[in-house]
Amino acid sequence: AAAEPTPEASPTDKITGEVVVSQKGRSFEPATATVHQHRWITIKNDDDAVNHAYCSSADLKYNSGPQAVGSTNNITFHNLGLFEIRCAIHPQMRGTIEVQPSLVPAG
């Protein structure tokens, strides 16, 4: 019998892990990531140019400012839902973060 395929690594936080979203090739990679409530994602500029990540929603206001090549910024998500991350310099750059309920009480 054939072995079951091994699932690929997911960008989810696995409760205590870190979610890294890369800015590369004028896009966010992965384009969609999942994080648990009260956790964060790290946005890393792996591109060859300055980027400027931001999120502007009723539940989250975030603005990295100009983000140098190789630098990182963290965004903590306290509210559930879908959040669009964009780049103020490269309008085609869009990513989605899905925030799911935490499996561990906040404390």
Notes on the structure:
- With 107 residues, this protein is mainly β.
- 0% of the residues lie in helices and 47% in strands.
- It contains no helices and 9 strands.
- The N and C termini lie far apart (47 Å).
First-last Cα distance: 47 Å
How does the overall form come out from the CA principal axes?
Answer: globular
The average pLDDT value, as a whole number, equals 84
Helix content: under 10%
Number of helices: 0
* Largest sheet entry: 5 strands, mixed
Coarse structural class: mainly beta
Proportion of residues in β-strands: over 45%
Biggest sheet: strands side by side, in what order? Answer: 3-9-8-5-6
Indicate the radius of gyration in whole angstroms. 15 Å
Q: Return the string of H and E elements.
A: EEEEEEEEE
Which spans have pLDDT < 50 for at least 5 consecutive residues?
A: 1-10, 12-16
> What's the total count of β strands?
9
